[in-house]
Design goal:
8 helices
């Protein structure tokens, strides 16, 4: 299946490099599935910081966050560390949308981000600290019984 996964990532990267905002957003959504693959990571970080349309930023960030794992959170942290004010706002909105319902999911994300604050990449460390701040601002709707 590695060949098929590599082919899918290659096709999505080609789509991500197009001029149509809808194609770039779809590529970000699709590539998030492959966030653990090195070939997808750089393109995902770029899409999360799309310079032409924050719709791409929002869709990509939300798809990465919905993975609810270190691969997705680390790319969002990297993007957040380099984001401008508008991009940061859209990434923050995605964080609230994904982690605003279940307290245990928010708490698990905080634990993952705490681990990411020890990442070798200083941008990931910085972005993970920012994500922890954002996650701590959320008061989830549902808490464990």
């Amino acid at each position: 299946m590695t060949a098929a996964r590599n082919a899918a990532v290659a096709a999505l990267i080609e789509l991500a490099r197009g001029t149509d905002v809808r194609d770039r957003a779809a590529a970000g959504h699709g590539l998030a599935i492959f966030a653990e693959m090195p070939s997808a990571r750089a393109e995902l970080a770029s899409l999360a910081l799309d310079t032409e349309d924050t719709f791409v930023t929002a869709v990509t960030a939300e798809a990465l966050l919905r993975r609810k794992d270190a691969a997705g959170l680390s790319i969002v942290a990297l993007a957040l560390a380099e984001a401008d004010a508008s991009q940061s706002e859209w990434i923050g909105s995605a964080v609230r949308d994904v982690y605003g319902v279940f307290a245990d999911e928010r708490d698990a994300a905080i634990r993952v981000c705490t681990t990411l604050t020890r990442d070798p990449d200083p941008r990931i460390r910085s972005g993970a600290a920012d994500l922890i701040t954002e996650l701590n601002r959320i008061e989830p709707i549902l808490h464990p019984a």
